[in-house]
Structure formats: structure tokens, C-alpha cells
Amino acid sequence: MSESFLQTTAKSKLYIGPANNLINTLDEFEAITEWTEVTGLIDLGKWGYEGNEITQGFIDDAYVHRLKGNLDNGKIDLVVGRNPFDAGQNILRDAVQSNWNKYPVKVVLNDQPTDTGTPSVFYFKGVPLSAQNDFGEVNNVVKTTFSIGVDGQLFEVPADVTIVFDPAGAALTAAVQGDPYSETIAVSGGVGAPSFALKDGDALPAGLSLAASTGVISGTPTATGVSTFTVKVTYDGFGEDEHDYGITVTAS
After folding, report:
1. Rounded distance, CA 23 to CA 195, Å?
2. CA distance 101 to 97
3. pLDDT tens digits, residue range 160-174?
4. Looking at the structure, do residues 71 and 194 belong to the same domain, yes or no?
5. What is the pTM of this model?
6. What are the phi and psi torsion angles at 47 (to 5°)?
7. 174 and 125 share one domain
């Protein structure tokens, strides 16, 4: 993908999970099943990794020297259209006013590269710090800005394609020694044209070969036996995956 893959925040979503002060790993975030969406999003703010700057000057060289200290993921200043009936907003309001817990937060972008692909997802442990209402003048839309501090590591699961192999199973059509053989491995879901290859160190039954541009396995097998191998597919635009297959060659 290149500069053509730009995206906006339109259709992005933010969710908050049940209070959990101990959650720390990506697997733990992805295992959460109870997420409440915060609706009425207006501004997702700016947040992400930033190293703290450490400076030290020395008399003898009269220069300031710099080091990178702790990483700080900052905080989200989340602006929403105030809705007293929104469950997600109310969780944040209550958290600011009534407890000192930390909450799992999930942000899902609308940037999947294909219709069958998956979007970028961010996870972090959030500390709800404030909930300030903006009332303004007569024609102002009433808004609430929730300040949510990012506690510790920020996890990002990048957008990706979902590649589907056909045949989907592991066993390809059986072959007969000495008889012509042909089987096609088809794929879908990537961006651009696919190319096929065997995983390094793998081999087809003797006498068969894999066409890189078409995914066709063809030839005349010369020996009996069972061969297992992994087919790797790489798209020239974006996307790669692999699938395990096997071919049994029987005697004629």
C-alpha cells in the first residue's frame, strides 16, 4: 500500500470495557467480550507514543545532551455530543466522579483495505480523568470532553486483508503414479495479483510443479507416497498468507 491509502476518522468507533486494573497484554484485551460503544463522537483527539526528553548540560563542552526517557502515550481528549442516555458516555461520567479504576478502551478505525479485510484496532488501559461539558451560546451543540489518560502500553493491531484459499481443506485430489495430474489452488481477498510459491524446504511429489502465476499444480507423478507442503501466496499490492496441503500418490 502507498500514499493512495489515506483515510479519515469517519465511521471510526470507540468502546469501553468493564473496569479492570490488572489487564496488561494484547491477548487479555482481545479476550474481552463485553464492550460498550461510546456514541456521538465528534473528535478522537491526538495520542500515541512520545518519548520523554531528558537533557543534561556539561561545563566542559558547553552543550546540552539529550536522552530518551520513558514512553508516554498521552491522553485522549474525546469530544462527544452530550447524550445523557448513552450507556458508554455514562460509564465514563460515573468513572470520573465515583471511582479511581482503570478501564479497557478499544478504538476501531474504518480503514480495512478490502471489503473482506479487517480494520486497525487500538487497545489501551484508560484512566478517566475529567468530563467537562461545553454549553456555550444559544446555537451551540452541547458537547462533553472526556479526558482519558493512557496507562502504560498502547497496542495496535494493524488493518489487514483476509485471504481465502480454495480448496479450503488440507487434502488435495489424490494422484496416480504415471498419470497426468492437475489441481488449481485459488485465492481471494488480497490487493492486486497473487503469486504462489512453496515454503522454503517444502517439495511437491516428484514429477509435479507449482505455477507461480496461476497456482496450478501439474505434471506426472513418478513415485508413490504422501507429500505434505505449504503454499505461500503474496499479492503484488498488499497481502500474504499460507496454507498447508497434502497430495497422496497411489500406484497405477
Report:
1. 41
2. 11
3. 999 999 999 999 999
4. no
5. 0.83
6. -160, 160
7. no
